[in-house]
Design brief:
Layout (H helix, E strand, L loop, with lengths): L27 E5 L4 E4 L1 H6 L6 E5 L5
Antiparallel strand pairs: 1-2, 1-3
Bound molecules: zinc ion.
Length: about 60
C-alpha cells in the first residue's frame, strides 16, 4: 500500500460536479476565516470555485 499521508490531494469541487473533488496533488493549503483547511492544486488555487474566502500558504512553507 502506498503511503499517501504525506501527499495531500486537491479537494476543490466545482458546482454541478456532485462534489467530485479535483484529486490532483495539492500544492497549497487554503484556510477559511473559520479556520477550515483544505488542499488545493495550482489550477484550483487560481480558478477553483472553493478558493473564495480562503487564505493560501504553499505546502512545505513554514506557516
Ligand atoms: Zn485542483
Amino acid at each position: 500500500m502506498p503511503d499517501t499521508s504525506e501527499k495531500p490531494r486537491c479537494t476543490n469541487a466545482e458546482p454541478g460536479t456532485f462534489n467530485h473533488e479535483c484529486g490532483k496533488p495539492a500544492a497549497w493549503i487554503g484556510t477559511t476565516e473559520a479556520g477550515h483547511e483544505a488542499g488545493f492544486c495550482d489550477d484550483c488555487k487560481r480558478r477553483g470555485w472553493e478558493r473564495h474566502g480562503r487564505t493560501f500558504r504553499r505546502i512545505g512553507d513554514p506557516s
